[in-house]
Amino acid sequence: MPIAEVLTRTREHMAKTLEHFQQQLARLRTGRATPALIEHIRIEYYGVPTPITQVGTITVPEPRMLVVQPWDRSLLSAIEKAILQSDIGVTPNNDGSVIRIVLPPLSEERRRELVRVCKKYAEEARVAIRNIRRDHIEELRRVEKEEHLSEDERRRGEQELQKITDKFMEDIERLLERKEKEILEE
Question: CA torsion 171→128→120→32, rounded to 10°?
Fold first, then answer.
């Protein structure tokens, strides 16, 4: 197994971790409405938990408002119930044809709490990236023994792994800073 294959898998695993981190940040409520805030909510649809995006459309007509328009009006109450039960802290308004979600302004305390949550998610992502690096360094060492790689080749592979890790760590920091700024800017 060549070193390039290990490095490719490392990039793939770290990219998945970064993508997961981005999804976590997108779900956090800031002062602006975004469909990602409710996309993860599941509705009981004929006995099957179904993502809200598969039963209707989510639009953002105003900066602080989301509108959910189900394709089947009989789902209005199920959608409303699911949003109420979610942990996003908003109350949906059902007018009989669509559900409107008005996001109230965030208090300073809630902003600080959201920043703490962002930092927690960032630390989880950093730990995951470091674990991926550790696992792939171990794999390089195993390859060195089994396939008779030279120690210099393994070291070059480890250095390349560190460069990849550093790039993903920078990406996490950049995303965290952007989200913190977004939360605190209002």
Answer: 50
